[in-house]
Known about the structure:
Blueprint lengths: L2 E12 L2 E12 L3 E5 L6 H8 L6 E6 L5 E4 L13 H8 L9 H13 L15 H13 L5 E5 L7 H18 L2 E5 L3 H7 L2 E5 L3 E5 L1 H4 L2 H8 L13
Helix pairs in contact: 3-4, 4-5
Amino acid sequence: xxxxxxxxxxxxxxxxxxxxxxxxxxxxxxxxxxxxxxxxxxxxxxxxxxxxxxxxxxxxxxxxxxxxxxxxxxxxxxxxxxxxxxxxxxxxxxxxxxxxxxxxxxxxxxxxxxxxxxxxxxxxxxxxxxxxxxxxxxxxxxxxxxxxxxxxxxxxxxxxxxxxxxxxxxxxxxxxxxxxxxxxxxxxxxxxxxxxxxxxxxxxxxxxxxxxxxxxxxxxxxxxxxxxxxxxxxxxx
Length: 237
């Protein structure tokens, strides 16, 4: 597959602190890639640099001008605000609350339905569970018909059953619609099962490659600095 993203010698500094140093990797079209590393390793900083929201040195090369959808860790909105899911979509798209067209409402319904959340369209966002909110945020990200999706720890705060549901949804969307996916995650077992590529990051690159080839106890101990629970298995058996 041709490359859709190339990162070459990327550096991000906050004053004298080197948040990211000499980061280089590439992502191919339709690939599902995962970034792993300990807390504070610079994973979200990398995302913000890729999106052009942080200054950096080095190169970030997007091929074929992809349309990018971004699902953040959290939604920067006051959940006491009396907004419904539908109104959130209209707000994000700068559309009129009072006279949305029928076709626009149908598009919102379709995107929510793709994320198993069609029934939530008239729910107040204050009543959504964390799992429901995550499905809404994914639907919001695909609303502008992207072909590259960035997920910043999509499972944060979601229970184990909900995690499996969201990962299956991401995998389904990627394979059904041909999205390229780059996600940050701490769930090594899910990554081992679903990811095509893993990027090991702790302020600098430790490794890059297929999870079956690089995820072992030695690499993980070097990356995280301690033993962590990791039991790779084939869930399709």
